[in-house]
Amino acid sequence: MSEVIVIGGGVVGLTSAWWLAEAGYRVTLVEREAEVGSMASYRNGGQLSYRYVSPLADAGVPLKALRWLFQPDGPLRFRLEADWRQWRWLAQFLGNCNAAANRRTTATLLQLGALSRQAMHDLSPQVPLAAFAWREAGKLVVYRSERLFEHAAALATVDAEVLTPAATALREPALAALQGDLAGGIFNPGEAVADCHAFCVKLMHRLQSHPNFKGVLHRDVTGIRTDRGKVAWLRTAAGPLRADHFVLAAGIQSRDLAASAGIYLPLYPLKGYSLTAPIRVGDVAPEISVTDFERKVLYARIGSQLRVAAMVDMVGADTRISQRRVQGLVRLAKEAMPSAADYDHADAWAGLRPATPGGAPIIGATRYGNFWLNVGHGPLGFTFACGSASLLAGMLRGAASPIALDGLTLRR
């Protein structure tokens, strides 16, 4: 039985380990942190957007980005780095900022989303949905601009509901205070919300009883050593780690680890923020997952708490929490949903989302015959984790892919 080491204990690494164990491989998980799911997976937005995807790279985004930079609570912050990787990523991102590239990426992500949704339900007998506060809440995207709303309405799927401002507030009463500022909303059924960190913890617990799971090693992988067209071993402070196959799923750390094997990964850390606010008796918290399109803020009720997530800070691998950004996010939340939760007692979090220039993850083979990738999911790691993991396990086995892989592999 072949042995596989999966590097990374976030939601993508954990699901990779599960599907590989199910495929008959002997799996070891390597995670540098003391607890799984404690970095980018810890307090992400909580939305599982299987059918509504909106890649950041699109026509008009560069001009919008310039305007965002001058907005006090705008969704984007940028700091120039003396790092060629930032410049190369930005150049590739700008190359994807056109309607044709956006349509291709969207079509690819919709296929991956459908696969991921089914894979999550296939996993549910092992990790019950209720164990991580999963709810099929639907997703409501609200628009303030008449022009943007009309454009979105023209592209809405046949099962989506196109709503007037009054109908939007009726559908989701938590938006009552915002009704006068809205042009309308589009409700997409079938979307879900859940607690990503709780999912990681529950899946780790289930993995530990899997007969093909060897265990988790809490070590920091500092390099990858190759020999004769294959990865030979991983370098750690506790000594080398060897296996038949190696899977890299270590978030933004994947960029440096791949580079140690001579592989360039087009990844950049998009820093995002979230608030987790307690919902009090009498609060009118949203039951539906809500995205404020122009403000780029999302709201998801997870159990007895409201998760508010937003912002893209392009400031390198800086995980520090900016109080200015947190205060701005609190202001936006109070403006949109003033009675939804106790924002004054919210916990703030920031995490680095490893994004590709086009917005699609990188899954599958490298030039080394035993070295595999599952990286670059950006803000949609939780959404696409199960589908990506099932694809990866099939690739190792040489099985035919259930979806087209164009745009999802390293060769693109």
Automatic annotation (TrEMBL):
EC number, as in UniProt: 1.4.99.-
Instruction: Kindly provide the name given to this protein in its UniProt entry.
Output: D-amino acid dehydrogenase
Keywords assigned: Oxidoreductase
Alphabetical list of Pfam families matching this protein: DAO (PF01266)
Keyword Oxidoreductase listed? The answer is: yes
Q: Pinpoint the FAD dependent oxidoreductase domain residues.
A: 4-393
Domain of life, per lineage = Bacteria
Q: What are the BP-aspect GO terms?
A: D-alanine catabolic process
Gene Ontology CC: one annotated term: cytoplasm
Q: GO terms for molecular function, please?
A: D-amino-acid dehydrogenase activity
